Amino acid sequence: MRRIPRIALAFGAAAISGLAASAPLRAQSADELDPATRAALDEIRAATEKYEDPEVALADGYIREPMNLCAHAGDEDLPPHLGAMGIHFFRPDLLGITAAEPRVNGNGIHTDFLKPSILVYHTTAEGSLKLGAVENLVWERAWKEAGNESPPEFHGFRYYHRIDNPVTTYADEAHLFEPHYELHMWLYEENPAGVFAQFNPRVSCDHHDGPKTMAEAIAQMQAGAQTGNP
User: Fold this and answer.
1) How are the residues of the chain apportioned to helix, strand and coil, as percentages rounded to the nearest 5?
2) Among 33, 65, 97, 125, which is least packed by CB within 10 angstroms?
């Protein structure tokens, strides 16, 4: 499988480029949210808490991002105090991935957080994986072809928009993906930056034993291609 590493690399870049690509949502703690939104988050947590065990996630069709990159703000030249995101597990069927070249593309417009398309874990000091956030990613073209004029929202919280700016050749704001929308929910790790923030100051990659930067991930991908290993 030569396409999987590119998809994996794109997922890693997606995590670390989020803040730079869009104006951040105002920090919202769970206590600040209206009762209807809090109730919806409670329902989502009840539906997804089984994924605190990553083996259950794997059994339900989620795939651990093959490059095993732990995404953090510092790797995007953002202030390290913003924290990290972690390691992504994703459902290819819910994302509707259709291509990996020249950019990762898909037709998924899945927005049901009761069955999120992406789970975000981080490694604890004991070496185990802890679920921090759930996430949905929606492809812009498919979303608009379905008749939607505005970006997807969750209880008034608009998804972040991701699209590459060709002027900034030193960066890829869409992280190797075609234009899309994405939204995180930090339901399993309290986030001082807000429930819907991209990064979490309480999360770090300190205990992760895999790549912690895009440079490391790229080097690993290239080494795997040369040796024939995934």
Assistant:
1) 35, 20, 45
2) 125
Q: What is the DSSP string of 162-228?
A: E---TT-TT--TTTTBPSEEEEEE--SS--TT-TT-SSBTT--STT--S--SHHHHHHHHHHHHHHT
Structure tokens at 12: 């890693």
Can you give the pTM of this predicted structure?
A: 0.84
DSSP state of 25: P
DSSP string computed for 99-126: E-SSSBEE------TTS-SEEEEEE-TT
208 close to 122: Cβ distance less than 8 angstroms:
yes
Residue ranges of domains in the chain: 3-227
Tokens of 124: 């604890």
